[in-house]
Amino acid sequence: MTSSEDQEWAAASIDPSSLEEAKGAIVAGCRLFLERLDRLEGGLVRVRTAEDVNRFSRALSMYLLASLPLKSETCPFCIQHSGGNRCQGCGYAKTHGGRCDADASAFGQLIEAVYKLAEDLHKIRDDTSVFGINLDMGRERLKASIGGSREAAEMLMVAIPEAAVSELMEAKRGYIEAVLKALPADLIGSLEVEMSLEEVLAKLEGYW
Fold it and tell me: Can you give the pTM of this predicted structure?
């Protein structure tokens, strides 16, 4: 894991304009995320069977993964250094295993783990062996997943305005962890999904 000294060195290389641009993108993403969570919560009234619980769990998990702030526009380092050979001067790359597309990159390894989890979710087909879940408990678990994700986004939005670079990266990491832990993996009934989720959480440790 990267030392706090290396993190502070990397953070010091970021211009205020790059930081503010990343903050703006994260806030915009959170607002859209919250709006869609409200719509998803409204859709729980259509969850009427155990099969619906399982399908909703998978769809919600895919949405939560797709909404994680891991795109370049949410990263002050990418905003300042992306394109051509500019990555060579990136403080994050120098302190976290290289360019984000390098095998040793902490970010690259995290992204690959997220892709693997999404792939495991996508390939699941309806299976009667996982449909024994209690319907009311399933609905409550889905509601809790949405609620936990909403709370994480609201906390991130509160933390962003006054955050310095390192604080922003820490807030993003904490937010991603909270959303991952809110995934209703227990309703999906897949050992592969559970193992892939644990791998994502493990790779997140090195993100910042």
Answer: 0.93
